[in-house]
Amino acid sequence: MSARPGELPRWIDIGLLPILNVLMALMVAGIIVAAIGADPLSAIGFLVQGAFGSGYAWGYTLYYATSFIFTGLAVAVGFHAGLFNIGGEGQAYIGGLGAGLVALAFDHLLPAPVLLPLAILGAALFGAGWAIVPAWLQAYRGSHIVITTIMFNFLASALMVYLMVDVLIDPGQMTAHSRAFESTAWLPSMREALAWVGIDMPDSPLNLSLLWALGCCVLVWLFVWRSRPGYEMRATGLAPRAALYAGIRPARVTLLAMAISGALAGSVGVNEILGLQHRLLLDFVAGAGFTGIAVALMGRNHPFGIVLASLLFGALYQGGAELAFEIPTITRDMIITIQGLIILFSGALAYMNRPWVERLYLRLRADPAKTEAVHG
Amino acid sequence: MDDLFALTLSTLAATIRLATPLILCAMAGLLSERSGVIDIGLEGKMLAGAFAAAVVAAVTGSAAFALLAALLVAVLLSLVHGFACITHRGDQVVSGVAINIIAAGMTVVLGNAWFGRGGSTPDLSPDQRFMPLHLPGAAALRDVPVIGPLYADVVSGHSLLTYLAVLLVPLVWFLLYRTRFGLRLRAVGEAPAVVDTAGISVVRLRYTGVMLAGLLCGLAGTFLAIAQNAAFQREMTAGRGFIALAAMIFGKWRPWPAFFACLLFGFLDAVSIRLQGVVLPGIGTVPVPLIQALPYILTVVLLAGFIGKAMAPRALGTPYVKER
User: Fold this and answer.
1) Which of A58, A105, A102 lies closest to A319 in space, CA to CA?
2) Coil, strand or helix: which one is A177?
3) Which member of A85, A290, B60, B268 lies 3.0 to 4.6 Å from A78 by CB, making a disulfide possible if both were Cys?
4) Do B98 and A2 touch (CB under 8 A)?
5) Which domains does chain A carry?
6) What is the pLDDT of residues B272-297, one digit of tens each?
7) pTM to 2 decimal places
8) In a domain, B310, yes or no
């Protein structure tokens, strides 16, 4: 590679450059907003107000962020192993199916403290199962994971349409959704949970999944940076041939990474199905899988960065909905556009700014005494 | 018997119509990927092209201007892809995903701001569109048994863009396998270092491949918006770009096999529309979602090496770094 890493201090590489990329994406978005005749600054005002202006707004923002943390972590785990998992959307869909099937099967039989962990496990296992097929095909049959996970998104969608319309539909209903779960399968909302400790919070879709998402952040951090298989995964991602030479089996790494990635994506089902909808239905993932790509790229595949990026996207989703009320020319699709721009600038063009920042930095530091050290 | 014949004819005609955007996009993907640049962004470029065509047709009333606008917009997106992947050696899949998402968002944002119809564009009148062409003699030959209806209903009666799409297959084949440019384009997808050593610019070749792909995606978008339909609707490509990608892979990155894969996938699409709710004796209700999922299943099975071996261009997805 032409740009040798390590020539720049860490604060530029993991601080300044990523922020610069996101700013460029937001600037392009601002230009688009201005081009359709709206005022970008007042749009930002409405957005921030809509996302953080009340307890209710916070609830929605954090509810969206919860799903994005799951899918962002899923994409990040894949990236660490050198795999691009575009299949988060389908894995989340099937994960929701897993949670829903457990709930539908046992909600009359088991009490909540037993049922909910089982349903959460169901979401993770179904998500992992949906991811492990493309992983196996890549590891042992040589098909490319990007293409197969794209295909599996469509397959998940077709499977769910079939199941919801023909099999799981609530008899006597016209719309394709299952019967509602008994309350034993309802993950408590944050309002209920906070009421137990005496805090009053306005009603919102936010539920205890947020805590599970944050728990997953810690688990992912421990796994990726503090465990042996995590080390093997990163080694394979950074230098596949060196890892192979060191005795790491790439096929096993691929399977493990994708299983974990799929389990994380599948956990979106916990937030949407167990936490909010309390029944199985169509299209509940609503693009969260793709948002996860932007979140992981923006958060530089680190759980801390992913939480921050998820919060930003949660705010964009919630604030965007409010913004659409205030300025009708800006629909929520503007948020999709911003998401795409962030993937472009933080992902595909991640190193565009590095050369000139590097030159600028070296020039600023180039007083004679230090030139030697910089070039040495 | 007559009913069955009529049904066969209408299914075949629908197959060709539904395969048109697939053929155009598959040829687009082929040209880009043969030069070594992955093109996940077929869907987005087609969508943006469709939007541009519908907007310009609605504003100027000219189908020709609409086509030009679609080509321009799709090529611009290709240039973004090239800028990210060729110039800055960014990840080609990430860039393609970005283009798809930007196109999905921007078309609706702009459409809604300009026309206020929730992302759709105004309906077009026939003179603003590419309408079905009636080939010479179609009406006269209709009464000839078998061949007459086949010619009149299946071969004739498609838009100019459909005929162009079919014509493009031998053209792409000729370009790739019988011209110096094609040889170099294929070489740059297999072994860019060798091409570079011969003193030919890898960057220029790859940009050419990527931009040709943009042109063809623009054609596909134009077909969707102002030939097959009479307006743009949000997300009207509905995954066709990915089906085309699947067809290209199914055809092992070669024009003719990719063309037949497009016809097969178009046929499955046409059949699944006709079988909606049909009950067949002995089978019961036809599982339409299964038929719709078949292109994806077939592609996965093929990629897994169970139907021959899919041979991707060797340098596909790897940015070229000149050795210092």
Assistant:
1) A58
2) strand
3) A85
4) no
5) 1-38+329-370 (no CATH), 64-323 (1.10.3470)
6) 888 777 777 776 777 778 888 888 88
7) 0.91
8) no
